[in-house]
Amino acid sequence: MARIGVVSISDGRDHVHARIADFIRSKQDSLVRSLQAAGHDVVVGDDLVATNALATSVARKVAAADVDVTVFYYSVWTFPHFTMLAADATRSPLVLVASTDPTEPGLVGMLAAGGALDQIGRRHTRAWGAPDDAELVEKIGVHAKASAAVRSLRGSTFGRFGGRPMGMNTAVANTDQWMRKFGIDVEEIDQYELVLRADKADAAEAKKAREWIEQHAAGVHYDGKKLTPELLERQIRSYQAIRDIIAERNLDFSGIKAQPELTENFATMDVTEAFLNDPYDWNGPKEPHVCATEADMDGALTMQLFKALAGTPVLFADVRHYHADRDIWDLCNSGQHATWYAARSDDPAENLAKVNFYPEVFFFPAGGASVQHIAAPGQMTLGRLTREDGEYRLQLMLGEFESYDDETNQTLVNQSTPEWPHAFARLDAPGEVFLSKFGANHIHAVPGDHRAALRAVADQLDVRLDEWTRG
Ligand SMILES: C[C@H](O)[C@@H](O)[C@@H](O)C(=O)CO
Question: Given ligand 1 and candidates 316, 363, 420, which is best to mutate, with the most ligand atoms within 8 Å of its CB?
Fold first, then answer.
């Protein structure tokens, strides 16, 4: 969970403060208990803010504890300039919370303080309710979680293997904009290093990994040409190479160009990317490493944010086909759908039992395996950071992954590329709107409804929110 600062503001008249201090403390204690019960680490101001000097000193101490958000708490009428000074002393997002107990003018305090912050353009969120109100606690938690996700990007490094694939402008972002807006550095790595390191990778591990895949997968469909044990091991060696480069260069997330150089002359990166994104490999459980197909920078950025919020692997897919008759989208891409999505189990054997490794199709002459499965059903949050006229926007919607009987699944996958992984998504967005407005060929998804946190992320990043729903 997140780290939340709580600073209670008071009235600047000594005699009034003396009379209401116990009331403020009891409300504050109750709010702090509720936040702690929700699993948050709470840093409480070391005094009530009843003077201008305390406004600065109390807020500075809370800020020094590196909180994700700071709550300014209004249970009484407060002097607004205390809020202004306290806000200036903290850089974290602010949540102004008013107590709705009518015995004291808490709402009035919040409105006066919020209005003052508006006047100087200091963004903040407002919330109100009893200190043990579950909705209030949830709302504060959402902003704190969003802030933790945004902050996790700052100081991170994206490893970009290769460059723009096949002229795909949407896969390339501006590195200055990334540093300024998100605090992310981009390390450029030539794919030659991947090839070199793959050739030198530990052969015993590659063999062990191939046998592990053969043992657990629904099928490894060797054909003696496009998919051989040697080619599968080459894909595994590429995973080993990237894993080692990630460790050496401290990469937080990455992307691989692959097309056309590697897919024409070496192997597809599908196995490599799938297991980087998975929460396990043949050596056991591990942290998922976000790795975007086609070195898609904004795709990887979206995935890194989604991962920070959901804590799961993130789906990356082409928006391949709209089955208008069923109102279902086929999200399908040769690249990485983490095998975890097949059954969403912590046990790799349960997922791999639904995964087939097929010889790559005609697009990719160098061959290797594609990692085929149909994503398990369930509610999903889908979207992507895209850019319009140089400015980021978050395109966001809810959806439902569906899966059907074997015959229907087969009929559907046969209409596109059956050898590739598929997620059948019923989007909470009209097909017309999606196709007219979505700003990329790639979309990303995580299980559950994370829209509230993503709205807060967009607000904190000052990114326009483009949210769709059928209403
Ligand atoms: C077949 C192409 O080469 C695919 O890689 C293409 O459909 C994409 O994945 C584009 O995102």
Answer: 363
